[in-house]
Amino acid sequence: MSQPLFRTPKGTHDVLPEDHQYMTYIKKAVRHRARQAGYKRIDTPMFENKAIFERGIGEHTDIVEKELFLVTSKQKEDEEAKFALRPEFTAGICRSFIEHGMQQLPQPVELYAIGQCFRHDRPQKGRYRQFHQFNMEVIGLKDPSIDAQLILVLAKIFGDIKILDRLELNINNIGTAENRAAYTEALKDFFIGKERNLPELDQARLQTNPLRLLDSKEEDTQILLKNAPAMDQFLDDESKEYHKTVLEYLDELDIKYVENPTLVRGLDYYTQTVFEFLDNETGSQNAVGGGGRYDGLIELFGGQPTPGIGFAGGLERIVWHMKQAGIKVPHKDQVDVFVAQLGPEAKKTCLKLISELRDKGVHTLGALGEASLKSQMRLADKFDARYTLLLGKMEVKGGTIILKDMAAGKQKEIPFEEAIPKVIELLGGKDKLDTYTMRDQFVDVDED
RNA sequence: GCGAGAGUAGCUCAGUUGGUUAGAGCGUCCGGUUGUGGUCCGGAAGGUCGAGGGUUCAAAACCCUUCUCUCGCCCCA
């Protein structure tokens, strides 16, 4: 059907099985590295009181001003929407930190999250209205070593999934909120009388978000900026010292980075350290992950003054990079055994056999219909089964079954009751199989 | 949100200056004698040519509108 009755809403997409293998692989690296570093998993609601985003991220940021999905219900559809789908994790996690009194926990509190976020932007490659992020936050303690260690975890994750060498870590320090306010004023003052020399777009930015002028792609703007005051003149000594120490620690950890004095991030809550993992080969949507400090955010939400630093990575963009790099993801979806059957008696017996194989941890498919043996063999081949077990009328009578090695193309008849142990042996023994027991399993972290 | 390009079977694409029942490859399903896959051969299913409207004797092709995707900008994951 070229025109299905329904399709995914604009900017959303199905995560099909193949992409899920990539997603699962990435999430595994995230969980593993996070756990090693003491992070614990948290999930916050997909929608929150919209004021959380307005106040936290900033009313005049694009994310809030034009990309928020508002949520209403049937009962309240006449009222103005009170809720919004989360466009990112940090604001909700900080809300949760306060709500659950996490300042009582040993500090710092390290949290991570994986899930969907929503922004109503015009879709493009690597930019969707519903997308997946993984997110890490360290709240409650401030020290350059915390910044460096957070970045280290991310570098490790990107290393694990083999895309680190495609990325460049850019880092900057934008000072305290006061530093930033003072600098913003200075920039505005500098451009008084020069507005007309600015491209239209940047004239607007001068009003709404002057810091954004720094990384403008407009040539005229960049020329004017050469004589503009530089940000580091407005940083207090403490911020400069902090930044220097962070960089020293990164050096010590052998993390490659580029100092980028024009790196300013669009969200209002950022202070001090900001950083991004950029991909310089693609033109746009090139931030694979980014983050920074938000030392004033918890206080802004009514909590005790509490420092924090966090990061978000985009799963879809990471998947894209892995594919570009030709990375194939190992997965457990291999079909070990296909059971082919002929005749009603054999089919009945096969159901039990299939069930038992599965319980032993053997990935088993079969008894799917009334197809001819030829069709069943073809299916076994299509599903890429390693072995086929064949049970026909003759075998049922003789108490045997045929075991075929698909790659070798060889088969032999064995006693029926030897089928399961033989298959297990061929697959490398019990330890290689996909078994689990609820009772003995560690309650670890969610597999999602 | 602004600007540009694209939209033909599940996928990748043909379709000559508008002219008979819209094609190929791959994929899917079924066969190629009695119970066997991967190669080969045959057959079938699958498309109101993204949707709506208009021009015309005639439109997948031309015009308008709309939807979706892609690219650039903005922004960001």
Describe, in short, the structure shown.
With 448 residues, the protein is of the alpha+beta class. 36% of the residues lie in helices and 19% in strands. The protein has 15 helices and 16 strands.
Describe the structure.
The protein is an alpha+beta fold and 448 residues long. It folds into 2 domains: 17-176 and 236-324, BirA Bifunctional Protein, domain 2; 337-432, Rossmann fold (3-Layer(aba) Sandwich). The chain contains 15 helices and 16 strands. It has an 8-stranded mixed β-sheet with strand order 1-5-6-11-10-9-7-8, sandwiched between helices. The chain has a 5-stranded mixed β-sheet with strand order 13-12-14-15-16, with helices on both faces. Helix 1 runs antiparallel to helix 5, helix 1 crosses helix 11 (315-324) and helix 5 runs parallel beside helix 9. The longest helix is centred in the first third of the chain and has 20 residues, at 17-36. The protein binds one RNA strand of 77 nucleotides through strand 6, strand 10, strand 11, helix 11 and helix 13.
